Give the backbone structure.
Amino acid sequence: MVDGMVGATRRALAAVAALAAFGLGVSAQAQQVVKIGAVYPLSGNSASTGNYAKMAFEMGADIINNGNPELAKVMPLAKGGGLPGLKGAKIQMVIADNQGTPAAGQNQTLRLITEEKVAAVICCYQSGITLTASAVAERYGIPFLNAESVAANLTERGFKWFFRTTPVAADFAKAYSTFLNEQKAAGRKVDSIAIVHENTEYGNSVSSVLADAFAKANLPVTQKIAYSANSTDVQPQVLQLKEKNPDVVIFISYTSDAILYAKTMKELNWKPAILIADDGGFNDPAFVKAMGSVTEGLISRSVFASGKPGSVAAILDDLYKKKTGGDGLDDVSARVLQAFFVMAEAINNAGSTDPAKIRDALRAVELKPEQLVAGYDGVKFDDKGQNVQASTLITQMRNGNYVSVWPKARATHELVLPYKGW
Amino acid sequence: MTRRRLIQILLVALVLAYPLVVAGSPVWARLGALVLLAAIGASAWNIVGGYAGQVSVGHSVFFGIGAYSAVVTYTQLGLPPIAGAPIGMALSVLVAAVIGVPTLKLSGHYFSMATIAVAELVRVLSSTSEFLGGAQGLGGPPVPRSVLDLSFISATPYYYIFLAVLAGLLWLTHAIEHGRMGFYLRAIKDSERAARSLGVAAGRYKLYAYMLSAAFTALAGSLYLTMFGFVDPESGFGILISVKMVVMAALGGAGQLFGPLVGALILVPLEELSNSYLGGQGAGLTFVVYGAIILIIARFLPSGLLSLLERRRSAASRAAKTVDGHAD
């Protein structure tokens, strides 16, 4: 009995000692580590996207902590050895799962801020979750950077700690209208535009933003076709297009219907001079693999295009392929990685983990296109926290892959029109 | 008996003092509020699902109506969201009557299926309604304009608001349980045909229970909105909301006053803690652990955790009787 008790006491003391040692170790280390929180959908409907984002964060932290000689030539922070502005402090990503629900997003953001004591938060993919999670960061006064939520109202809330690097729906529409007007100026016919969109929230909202932007840019939308993304036959819609024969067609679709449209247009042997797909299903790897060969010259948008060899984007694309085992950066992972580097830059410039100093540094961030992995015109935040230089690239399908063709400054290939198809 | 009383007093004191006990940790304070909020929803479901035995798997309809009423009160009228709570409750009672009259005639699984169908229909409709913000959803006041917006940085005020609502709901449930309606509902649950043959107006009482349950589920929805400040079709009308209410009540003990509370007390921390400690790995481990624990409880305690207590108590009283017998 007594022996047992002594043993237990000894064990308890040993445990306390171990804990104390562990605690000391952690606090000694804490000075050299900057924690950045990220709350992404690692489970639920968008789990695949979230896990690709997680890999982008891990890769970004690895580059800053351990360096990459090739990248260091174009990117000062990639020299390795952590953040020079904080005496070589390493970045530690604390990644949490928002489970695709606004409630979990808010709970986890609170945990990262109050328990993990992160210096800043990058969050959350879905607009609704970004809305609830950023409210917590605002109340606690922690810099909150959003990489990819496009709901316009996020920057209209008068928040002082909220920043967003991504372009929003209106920016995409503006890119298309500028692009089309340039084609018109170059002598192509852009007298009739058809918008074909799937008929739930996604298709409806994007098509109305596009129609508004085109009306402002003097581009005539002559036909609007709504359809159900679940339909198994799109011949009626393609026949409607064939009858009116518009110069430009824009599709807003999910994946399976995108494939169906590509097939049906080939079967009915009809194609417009300019065929545009607004991201979505047409950028899905499944579409590119299945239909890339019969949609030569298809135009789409993406904030990412690998770019010229030796550029920041190309080097990071190669590194990311190694990290994921083959998948390169895409529209979302490039935006995530870009947000991470913006945050690292700001913390480094702040030279401190003090939230207010990081916020001021974010406000002062100014990055040029050649320093970016995403295809923006730059990064510079306005008073509302929106990146005013956020923009998109226009890409074109060439030999089964999308390459950037517009704007000219960041294009790797010449634009080829009219649409060739099959 | 005095020992039981003492335990009761201690439990009540613990519940009242909880936010003070965990004052240093906002995460644990919030966990307490989340447990109570979930318990309100599950206790509301318990009235019709537990006591009357009508297993609705579409209670998210009422939760969503409550949440949307609160947010629309803000977006359309500029009033504090909580002012929408009575509107949501009234609307839910009305909708419950409309859904209940035809569906409560169905028995067993058919009733459950019908409630799922209605909930899914409402979810899809809400995602196409511009008034309700479509698939993007609607947000409450981004920054509190006054204390009436009930937007607090600390979870402690929510904890006490939710506690008061839950206490009121449990008191009401207790009164029903021991009143005429409680006997009717239990009779209906055991055998509706037998109850009818004894003169119980089964249809009418089922509907009353359904409407009352709907009103409090809507209140839970409005409270959810004041705390989180955002609702979209999935977080308002999603089927997971309904399922969680059912699972919580069943886990703790459906048809028992404190069953849903016990269920919430187990499930909510389990969900939050497993997500906090396992979620970051990104392998969906959270749900594996969560599901496994539900499975274990369902396998070994099919009538809920509270049945464990009952079993011990009846074993103890049996033992006491034997001792008495010997004394005789």
